[in-house]
Queue: 3 jobs
Job 1
Amino acid sequence: MNPEAAPAPKNFSTGPAGGQGWTIKRILDWAADYFNKQNIENPHLEAEILLAHALNLKRIDLYVKFEKELDQNELSRFKECVIRRKNHEPTAYITGIKSFMSLDLIVSRLVLIPRPETELLVEAAIDIAKHIEHPSILDIGTGSGAIAVSLAKYVKHSRIIATDISRGVTLIALENAKKHGVMDSITFEVADLFPKEAEKFDLIVSNPPYIRSGDIKDLAPEIRDFEPHVAYDGGPDGLDHYRKILDKAGEFIKPNGYLLFEVGEGQAKEVVNLIRSAFASAEIVTKKDLNGIERVIIAKS
């Protein structure tokens, strides 16, 4: 992209009016105002994250160094971040990092960006797994490894197999496991949903693709134009992957084991019915997210 096309103050290179340079405070105020005009949510937070990334600082350090003036290289790096965000690229892809369950995870455009809603799924799995001695867990469609790495970090003595159909995606999950010191607890496998070797698990956990194919065109450009379609396209009714998982789940779950799914808005009832078709006597509960949406389904086989 041509840097000259970047939105910026008229004197971005030379400093604001009055001969003063672009301090951290001034550039943050400008960026927050600009992002607000571009209808970007949480404009000041976005500006802070991107500036901290451009300067290789922690966000808290921005406030310690409010009056520090940016040099031309620093301005150039921040300007590039502003361009990318203005063009709807998600902040997590620009910085290469997304916080999830208080862990900084490596992300790229190969993987879906972990969402706060999925933390509810992980918290439910932790609540169950911590009462099982040496729990065995299958994470289906691991993506960045957000679920598997979090469970390994917070459930001691767990043994986890995490699958994904993409080798490139699996390598990112592997890097996150290394980063957070849980390599010994997780086995990553390139596989279509289930591992190649049959075994029984205490928990099967999955946040599968669940967006209806026909709805993709209406998604925010941050999702539609940047995140991998394969990670969220759930087929015509959004339920294709639930059917595929439930078709074979009985072969991989222990008696009285648990299935945990994240689901999209309005899908809980349909997924519960699919579970009942596969496990007629299953005990099923749902959990709502902060918006009151039934977001997590927990089924005891």
Job 2
Amino acid sequence: MGTETTTRPIIFSGEMVQAILGGRKTQTRRVWKKPRGHTNHDVYPRYIGGRFELSSNGFCIGESINCPYGKIGDRLWVREKHNIECPYPAEEKCGHPDHVYYWATEEPVVRESFSTPWRPSIFMPRWASRITLEITGVRVERVQDITPKDAKSEGVPAPQSEVALGLPDQYALHRFKHLWDSINAKRGYGWDANPWVWVVEFQRQGE
């Protein structure tokens, strides 16, 4: 009997949605947070014997952990900034994809044409999601362990100045570091803190 797969939501910014749709983003890194009840600063995750376990001072402490984003073969449906123009009173139950507009791929003139505010990603209902990802790999590592190749797979776009010089890949690591800090530094998980992270590799379904 095969292992059952699950489907979970995951939030991406408009910029990262564009990278996924453009085939440039195939990885995401999310902070690993210590389980409740563990005050030991030396506790960290390791992949041992086919499963993730908590370790301390180089020794396994016998407690298994699961990646909150899933395992290989599971699916993630993407939540993104959106708006719903629906003739029905209960918009969140509309169920018609044609009534959904996505911030990431709309022209500025369309973005400004709505009389209602754009909805944050967290409020996107499942039926309105247009992107489903299949997990192809999961691991844990320190954020600073990212390689230039993996930094490129994070999909952070290169500025036009780098593209013009033919250097979009050379500075991928620098761009990722800047993006990481812009999201996580204020939460205490900046690049210099070098936190443990879940590395989730994926491919977009339908590709």
Job 3
Amino acid sequence: MNRHTHLSVIAVSILGCCATPALAADGDWEHTVVIYGMGAALDGEAQIGNVKVPIDLSMSDVFDALEMGAMAAYRADNGTWSISADATFMGLGGTAEGDREILKGDLDMDQATFMGTVGRRLTPNLEALFTLAYVDLSTDLKVTARLPGGGSESRKASEGASWVDPLVGLQYNVPFADAWRFNLRGDIGGFGVGSEFTYQVLANFRWQASDTLGVIFGYRLIGFDYEDGNGSDYERYDLTEQGPLVGVSIGF
């Protein structure tokens, strides 16, 4: 596939992974809500039966065609334990034009994700995380292939998939300069329970404008490799979603 590609993203979510840990005294619960927007690129491969669509999207392609998503995050922290509840919905659509035997591939996918995370602070700056994530996909694929004798032929497939993934991770949060904090989170999971493998990396900076109001800039990377079924019921999603984010945090 070449990179003449279009991707649109519509997202509404409550996403606790993007809330920077609040500074709570032991035993006192601190709450943080973050409202932010995130751009998302999509690359990898989706297959239903014998219909396979490769997606290869550069960040320049994304900024040319991207619709930003509206997102929110919530987190509660008492200095030792943290709890976050996440719900995400994204509507993804991609078209790639290729060469040789494949002329064009189309992907339309609705993705809903529900996550629950419990964190345990190991040091003042380091947290251990355990997450259960439920993923639900509804996918339509279309491939237009070149025929040996000339002309073209289109193949379509539609399918839905859902699974639950356990994830384990670490989150590192540290202050620097005046009113600035850096947060880095990484999770891995799947382990064959739901998907074969899934991962997430999140890095952000937060500038604390006041006791309650902050501004967050960051970048998020999510990937998963899910495979199930046989023959015409076979499904595989090996996808990576990534993009920058910016938002406002409110602490109380």
